[in-house]
Amino acid sequence: MQGAKEEIHIVPETESFPLMEAGSFQFLETWDFVLVSNLQKTNASRDCRRQSFLMELEKMGFTIKKIRDGHRLFCGIRAHSIIFSQYMELVKDTSCCSLHTLPMGPVPTPTARIRIVNFILRKKEVNGENFEDLVRDHVFETKFPLHEREEDLQSHWAQWRDIFYRQPIGKIRNYFGEKVALYFAWLGWYTVMLVPAAAAGLLVFLSGFSLFDASQISKEVCEAKETVMCPLQDYQRKYWRLAEICTFAKLTHLFDNEGTVIFAIFMALWATVFLEFWKRERANTASSWNLYGWDEDQEELTLELINNPNYHLQKYQHSYLHSSAILICSLIMICLLIGMAHILVVYRVMATFLFSRSALPFLEQQLTTAVVVTGALVHYITIVIMTKVNRVVALKLCDFEKPRTFSERESNFTVKFFTFQFFAHFSSLVYTAFFLGRINGHPGKQVRIGGQWRLEECHPSGCMMDLFVQMAIIMGLKQTLSNCVEYLSPWLTYHIHKLREQAQMETSDDPNLEEWRKNYFLNEVNIFSLFDEFMEMMIQYGFTTIFVAAFPLAPLLALFSNLIEIRLDAIKMVHLQRRLVPRKAKDIGTWLQVLEAIGVLAVIANGMVIAFTSEFIPRLVYKYHYGPCSRGNTTADCLTGYVNHSLSVFQTKDFKDHVPDQGIEEVTECRYRDYRNKDDYHYSGEFWFLLASRLAFVILFEHVALCGKLIAAWFVPDIPQTVKNKVLEEKFVDLQNKLRLSSRVTDV
Predict the structure, then answer these.
(1) Nearest C-alpha neighbor of 189 from the set 655, 508, 566
(2) Does position 92 have pLDDT exceeding 80, yes or no?
(3) If phi over 0 gives left and psi between -120 and 50 gives alpha, with beta otherwise, what is residue 23?
(4) Burial 518-550 (b: 16+ CB within 10 A, else e)
(5) Which end of the chain is least crowded, N or C, by CB within 10 Å?
(6) Of 342, 335, 482, 345, whose CA–CA distance to 423 is shortest?
(7) Please, how many CA atoms are within 13 Å of residue 672, restricted to the half-sphere of its CB?
(8) Residue 25 pLDDT class (50, 70, 90 cuts)
(9) What is the pLDDT of residue 586?
(10) What is the CA radius of gyration of the chain?
(11) Rounded Cα–Cα distance for residues 32 and 76 (Å)
(12) Alpha carbon distance 680, 542 (integer Å)
């Protein structure tokens, strides 16, 4: 098939720049968008509808150039300057224009051109069909703006060697628009602020090494060679010595020590300071871009009127019936996600049964560790699957809500999708932190699933070990696998698409066609491409703050990941994806409220982790109420005897079923982690005193942390005084000019 080139409606307003090729000058015309049609999927009706759509664009003043290339038809379109003059007149906006002007008026910036033209293409209807309808019926295949030869971004930003260099936010804004620039500005600020958090977390973790062999609790565990412990699982059916977990007791002290409380309070204050300073940074940025007083509704109405002068105003709507239905559906979805966490509990119980019967010696010896690790892997796979389900459900709920504008739809979608994702990611962690091993009963009277399978116990060294391992695996997998997939997937897709399509395309000397082909080969983008990047960072921020008391290395992992994430996103956007349609914005929108909500949840969760999951409160109570120091003995370590105090006694004659194999020698008593009486196994007085102490600590911790957050928020103003004074001066000058103009009119 011979390629044919056709041009229609060439108007005097043209833009081009020279392209050196083979020693001669060729001129490569600039185009706002390229529309692509697959002629193999067309027919007479679709051809007619395509022509009607293009002719409607012509009537609005668009220049259109058609180039047929094999079985595809490329249509370059360029808008007339009258469209942008109307825009500037309606919004009184000069930030969308270059500093120089042509005789026909100011020259719009490339981002402004693309944004306005994309709105027209998306909203333009011909015979009741818009562009999306035509794509669904294969009249058009796709549309995309063209990448420009932006040397600075390609050479000094989208390169791995620039991983530690400052980002050119201004140039990113000029190329991708304010929305993308604010994302990278926020991500860069977040990464910089992670440095002190990562340093503090690493210091807390390393401080545990100084007590690796000196901890009194670790010493007592390692010396407890005669302390016989009750079986952890039915299928092991054997007693064990407490000294067997000597190494794990030392490891647990690395992240469950006195510094954990200070670090948790520090992270609560850090989250507040981070947000407050970001608000200041955002205000400075918006002011420098002349967007401080930008009105999104005015922008949307302006574009609607340019596209259709007869546009009828679509007002905001609210329906209590729709809201109630959406709330019920959301609650059902949340219950489903919580149910997935219960399924993971069942998996761990079944895995315990299977691993206990395995022929592998390692699985039998490290049964609890193997169950925790595989459970975390299953949790990660569940997250990947439920992410796709959550997206579909959130979109359906948003469509049912019928938002007025795309920005409103995006905001509603953000709240719903993040809520679903939060429960998908954190339900299992909540169970591990606050329920694992606490609803199991006691030896001889265990809670069982279906009356047969015994619920899983915490790790022998404590529940903090379970939470630490699960956090480490999930964060590690998300930071490594997700980044690998995020880069390799578009890289492979781009090269496969290029090889497959090049075989069907013909040789051409037209530089426009070559440029259009290069952009066509790149990966497609959609309206939620940037949204996905934000969501990924919000989930990471949740892991970094919500359970940071159990995993102080989370900020360090997040720091390393973000250094890679910034360059990975830059390379993907510049080299592997089609150009994102620029969007105007003066802040990060609903994501700021999400960050504030995570900050509050972090205070609550970390306070409860320290109180109910870690051994901090039991150690503190023993130290000052039961230990030798409480009796005036200052020569001994205050925690001397703590291990024995924290273990309850069980009479082996009270085993009713699943009687353990003796294994050691004739055993009449075994120990287990709990505070129960020796006679009737009811909770002891120490348990209730300890519970009251835990609750008192949670209240105290949360009040101290929240007060600290409020003081930090008050101490650091959201908006710098320089920005306020600049806006105030602009208002004053504007009023002075209006007053002078009014005086002149009165004099006349």
Answers:
(1) 566
(2) no
(3) left
(4) ebbbbbebeeebbbebbbbbbbbbbbbbbbbbb
(5) C
(6) 335
(7) 25
(8) very low
(9) 86
(10) 32
(11) 7
(12) 43
Q: Where are the domains of the chain?
A: 5-146, 169-301+317-617, 719-748
Lowest mean pLDDT among 199-213, 252-266, 660-674: 660-674
Cβ contact 307:124 at 8 Å:
yes
Kind and range of the H or E run holding 463: helix 463-502
Bigger pLDDT: 242 or 97?
242
Tokens 């015994």 -> residue? 454
Give a three-class secondary structure readout of 674-736: CCECCCCCCECHHHHHHHHHHHHHHHHHHHHHHHHHHHHHHHCCCCCHHHHHHHHHHHHHHHH
Tokens of 428: 């299992």
Instruction: Report the C-alpha gap between 225 and 501 in whole angstroms.
Output: 70
Alpha helices (H) in 124-168, listed in sequence order: 131-136, 151-156
pLDDT for res 35: 94
Least confident of 101-115, 216-230, 595-609: 101-115
Beta-carbon neighbour count of residue 706 at 10 Å? 17
Is pLDDT above 90 for 217? Answer: no
664-710 pLDDT per residue, tens = 557 888 899 889 998 888 999 999 999 999 999 999 988 888 888 88
Backbone angles phi, psi at 446, to 5 degrees: -95, 145
Rounded distance between C-alpha atoms, residue 152 and residue 721, angstroms: 33
At 124, is the secondary structure helix, strand, or coil?
coil
Residue position matching structure tokens 């294994």: 663
pLDDT at position 107 is: 66
Q: Which two tokens stand for residue 624?
A: 């000052």
Rounded CA separation 516/37 (Å)? 13
Amino acid at 304: E
433 contact partners, CB below 8 Å, separation of at least 6: 463, 467, 547, 550, 605, 608, 609, 612, 613
Q: Which of 10-14, 309-313, 476-480 has the lowest mean pLDDT?
A: 10-14
Terminal C-alpha separation, the chain: 74
- Mapping DSSP onto H, E and C, the string for 525-569 reads CCCCHHHHHHHHHHHHHHHHHCCCCCCCCHHHHHHHHHHHHHHHH
% of the chain beyond a pLDDT of 90: 21
The more confident residue out of 507 and 456 is: 456
Q: CA-CA-CA-CA torsion for 347, 348, 354, 358, nearest 10 degrees?
A: 140
Task: Bin 640: left if φ > 0, else alpha if -120 < ψ < 50, else beta.
Answer: beta
Average pLDDT of the chain, as a whole number: 82
Q: Within its chain, how far is the Cα of 654 from the centroid? A: 51
Averaged pLDDT, 36-46 = 88
Tokens of 271: 């989250």
Among candidate residues 257, 674, 245, 644, the one with its CA nearest the CA of residue 445: 674
pLDDT at 350: 76
CB count within 10 Å of CB 215 equals: 20
**Torsion 364-368-373-379 (CA) sign:** positive
pLDDT(196) > 70: yes
- Over 70: is that where the pLDDT of 216 sits? yes
Cβ neighbours, 10 Å, residue 359: 6
- Taking Cα atoms as reference points, which of 58, 67, 63, 24 lies closest to residue 520? 67
Q: Tens digits of per-residue pLDDT, 176-190?
A: 999 999 999 999 999
Residue type, 344: L
